Amino acid sequence: MLAFLIKRSANAVFVMLSVSFIAFMIFRFVGDPVDLMLNEQATQAQRDELRIRLGLDEPFIMQFGTFVSNAAQGDFGISFRNQQDVLGMISERFPATFELVIVATIISLVVGIPLGVITAIRRQTWYAEAMQFVSIIGVSLPSFVVGIGLILIFSVWLGWLPAFGRGETVQLGWWSTGLLTHSGRMSIILPALSLSLFQITLVMRLVRAEMLEVLRSDFIKFARARGIPARAIHFRHALRNCLMPVVTMTAMQIGGLIAFALVTETVFQWPGMGLLFIQAVTFVDVPIMAAYLCIVALIFVLLNTIVDITYAMIDPRLRGAEK
Amino acid sequence: MMLQPVISMDSPGTAPAPAPALEVSNLTVEFPTKRGVLTAIDDVSMRIEPGEILGVVGESGAGKSITGLAVLGLLESPGRITGGKIHVGGRRVDTLGEDELTKVRGREMGAIFQDPLTALNPLFSIGAQLVETIRRHTDLGKEAARARALQLLREVGIPAPDERLKQYPHQFSGGMRQRVVIALALAAEPGLIIADEPTTALDVSIQAQITALLRRLCKEHRTGIMLVTHDMGVIAETADRVAVMYSGRVVETGRVEDVIHNPQHPYTRGLMAAIPSLHDRVETLTQIDGSMPRLNARPDGCAFNPRCPNAGPRCRRDRPDLVTAGPSLAACFLHEGGTQ
Question: pTM to 2 decimals?
């Protein structure tokens, strides 16, 4: 286990260094931040002065080195644009995105897995066929259409749920959570639903395909011959054998959602990281972009580690290394 | 003489003799397909007494596995029983619904399948699968079920059962896994076990151990075993009686030594002649010319007539039934006044 963790950490460091290096290279071609920060009347002296203050006069590799050593201590520098601490800006926004994504993922698993099982074991019934058909629509609808549709139905027509914002939040240390207040919980429903609709259909179709495969296997036939009731066969024996690809896909989707929940956040005016990143790109705010990419990379690395640990929990054959 | 008529189990029996472990009478299994109905099992009858091993032998597609699955109620759709009766331990099972069948399976009839490598769920420990099965069929609590699981593993000859209980299928060899499968089949002490090619996937040296184990368990527990195999050698070593199947029908049945040493049906004779001897070196192996007809292309009359050296016009016209033939029963006109 210790060897595994050390190997993983070394791996993570390497991945993060590579990501930040590539990110840094790309940002050099996005534009000159000095031009964007000063107005057109600024003198050359003012420009040079700012350039030195931001450390942009140093060679590229030195800039990168400074960035890495600072980042390792949690210091991602000051935003070029609004002169605030980058880590502070991100940690202000990150909880909103993270909560949204986690709630959406939980919804997609809680709804998608049973639907997948049911459409697999009852695949000749009309409702399973209907579900398959609806799921194709779910996969192909763009999420902003879903979001706008949900707002129209639940906020405008029915007036049940708020259409935008995050509601009241409670501060837990640096983490601000909306899940502990009523208005916060009401506010997260629509954006989480619109984010999860695509996931639900994905999970459902994946579980269905896996189930159909597993139900054909010998150990299912043998379990039936042992007199194990259908319910236990489907939900205990078969489903557990379907979970590996679901775990993999879910983890990748969580990472993807955190990085790209942008559209949903825009539709629902959700104060998450997506908007921050888009603004940073517009203003060539290199420290924010770099910090953002590093955090996303870190999340992916963490998720991958969690996935590997989950694999070993699900499948005893992968626990061999422990011995 | 026909095969023994079916004793009706529906009326309260007066005979003190125990009910047969398995009684199949005039079973027909059909597979409706787009191009017509295929008859996989055609009017098959067989009977297994408690403590008896009946070997069911035949080449692939003869219907021997389908017979086993039909008894277990595990025919895969669209296969279905369209005629006949199946009694297990005196209870009729072919008319039961799925819920009822789930209660009978494992409790009154167990199963052993061909490939022990795939018959166990890879994600659950042996102990979990045993305890699950035991608790399903008995009132035992967790601890008692565990004790019973240990006892079962000991009984099927697995060393260090205490440690083995916690292990997963991939930590067992093929032969050991088949022992676990047998322990699972025995969990509720069923009166009948359907063993479908239980040794086919195993090394020859392991095969003998497994057949010996089956034989011992059968005699000790008075379990009836239906041993489905294509291997005459396994039948000779293990079974008490044998039913030879060809193209969905039983063509010969009798005591093992009679059928082996004195086969009555031309197909059985061909089958016996095709077993290579260890003692003589031959240039070419004996074989039965041709192949078994496909289900949708069965000839009229006896299904074996295109390959039969003794076939006459009667064989192409009428279908023979099982009649007394020497010490056994055979479905051949040679024993019913000739093939003309």
Answer: 0.79
